[in-house]
Design a protein that fits this description.
The protein is α+β, with helices and mostly antiparallel strands. The chain has three domains: 109 residues, Trigger factor ribosome-binding domain (Alpha-Beta Plaits, 2-Layer Sandwich); 97 residues, Chitinase A, domain 3, CATH 3.10.50.40; 178 residues, Trigger factor, C-terminal domain (Trigger factor, domain 2, Orthogonal Bundle). Helices cover 46% and strands 20% of the residues. It is built from 13 helices and eleven strands. Strands 6, 7, 8, 9 and 10 form a five-stranded antiparallel sheet that branches. 16% of the residues are buried.
């Protein structure tokens, strides 16, 4: 087998491979011999079938396997002889073959770049440290108390208001006829919960016990019942009682319903949970800052094929955002060529960082342990309550899915490895600063700037 390099252009390489006819013949005879051990031909025992008969009966079908084997061997030889690290699968094209002649084909491929990672000890970063405030703990307690609310009858003579629970009978009519599923008695409806058709609950606010109300609403166009979709209907409603929600008392008894000893234990648990959430957000910001440093510290070329594949994935998201009129305002003002140039640069950044992190992991033997994978599988299963067994079964039966799950785990472990070497200083901070987008002007934390499509693409 002869391998000849025909072109070198940056990370691109091209090779011409020639497999002599004699080698093709050897592979063919070897494969036919294997087939003959199992083949059934009248008049011959398996393994005793003459080669001419095997060649006549199975030669054409086996030849395709032989050619595939020869092509794979030739491509692998081109890679191994030249010590190449492939960026993606090579493109192979057969240029010449006739039975009894040589096989010739070309191999076009892209290699991963050669580079030396920067000295990670030279990286300096700040990690934000935020403590939970008493007001946040009190707010969380109040929300929990609301979730454990009971209800009691309103004794004073007053109309219903948002937040009340009204006990009603109702009958819905389309024209003069009641429609299926539109009737109930003694139904308890929380006003303001938006559980009924838009406009229904608002028309019951201000009514007193005993009131009979005609509620006029229109079903949404996308309503699941095609007969009612987009149709105006009338509900005849009678209000029997008004109840008000009574939040659970925030005391030691409430703590015991949560499986904790007392209220202080609840507050400590809430504080720890809030601070764990803050630590997670701080880790995300720290990783983003690290990736920015890594991107600035490395400028090696990236394989065009990988960049194009990454760009196509990003650009599809941009086109989807454009179709839904969700494109960033800054991007709306740019031409398509300008947008493509910007997102090509982002695609190159993502590919370069991916190559860098993979190489750092390889050089330092960073690996995914089974415990890491088990935790990821459990976390994934928890996303689908009641279907955990199906999730585990899916991953057991799909090795590609397991590999897809490993990729982000390995990235996080490599990031942790780099952070261990970098100079990290803790900075006491506030919730507002933690929630603040690094590229946004100062703003209230309760109205954080929505991430732009560009920022999402950079962070992905």
């Amino acid at each position: 087998m002869q391998v000849t390099e025909t072109n070198v252009d940056g990370l691109k390489r091209s090779y011409k491979v020639t497999v002599p006819a004699g080698q093709i013949e050897t592979l063919l005879v070897g494969r036919l011999t294997e087939v003959g051990k199992q083949a059934k031909v009248p008049g011959f025992r398996p393994g005793k079938i003459p080669m001419p008969i095997l060649r006549k009966k199975y030669g054409s079908s086996v030849m395709s396997e032989v050619l595939e084997q020869a092509v794979n061997q030739g491509a692998n030889q081109a890679v191994s002889e030249n010590n190449l690290k492939l960026a993606m699968r090579p493109n192979i094209e057969v240029t010449s073959f006739a039975e009894g002649g040589d096989l010739e084909f070309t191999v076009a491929l892209e290699t991963l770049p050669e580079f030396t990672p920067m000295d990670f000890k030279s990286i300096s970063l700040e990690r934000l440290k935020v403590e939970a405030q008493e007001s946040e703990i009190a707010e969380a307690l109040e929300q929990f108390a609301q979730s454990r609310s009971t209800s009691e009858a309103v004794t004073e003579d007053r109309p219903s208001q948002s937040g009340d629970i009204v006990v009603i009978d109702f009958m819905g009519k389309l024209g003069d006829e009641a429609f299926q599923g539109g009737t109930a008695e003694g139904y308890e409806l929380e006003l303001g919960s938006n559980t009924f058709i838009p406009g229904f609950e608002e028309q019951l606010i201000g009514a007193k016990v005993g009131a009979e109300i005609k509620v006029n609403v229109t079903f949404p166009e996308a309503y699941q019942n095609a007969k009612l979709a987009g149709q105006p209907v009338v509900f005849e409603v009678k209000l029997h009682a008004i109840k008000k929600k009574v939040p659970a008392k925030i005391d030691d008894e409430m703590a015991k319903t949560m499986g904790l000893e007392n209220l202080d234990a609840v507050k400590n648990a809430i504080k720890e949970q809030i601070e764990r959430d803050y630590e997670r957000l701080a880790r995300m910001k720290l990783k983003r800052a690290l990736l920015d440093k890594l991107a600035d510290g490395h400028d090696f070329p990236v394989p065009a094929g990988l960049q194009d594949s990454e760009f196509q994935a990003i650009w599809k998201q941009i086109e989807d955002a454009k179709a839904k009129d969700q494109l960033d305002e800054a991007d709306k003002a740019k031409s398509e060529d300008e947008l493509k140039a910007e997102y090509q640069a982002i695609a190159a950044r993502r590919v370069r960082l991916g190559i860098l992190l993979a190489e750092v992991g390889r050089l330092n033997n960073v690996q995914i342990q089974q415990d890491d994978l088990n935790r990821a599988l459990v976390a994934e299963a928890r996303r689908f309550p009641g279907q955990e067994a199906m999730v585990f079964k899916y991953y057991r039966e799909n090795p590609d899915a397991i590999e897809a799950l490993k990729a982000p785990l390995l990235e996080e472990k490599v990031v942790d490895f780099i952070l261990e070497l970098a100079q990290i200083s803790d900075k006491p901070s506030s919730r507002d600063e933690l929630m603040q987008d690094d590229d946004a002007p100062a703003q209230s934390a309760d109205k954080p700037k929505k991430k732009t499509a560009k920022k999402k693409a950079e962070e992905a």
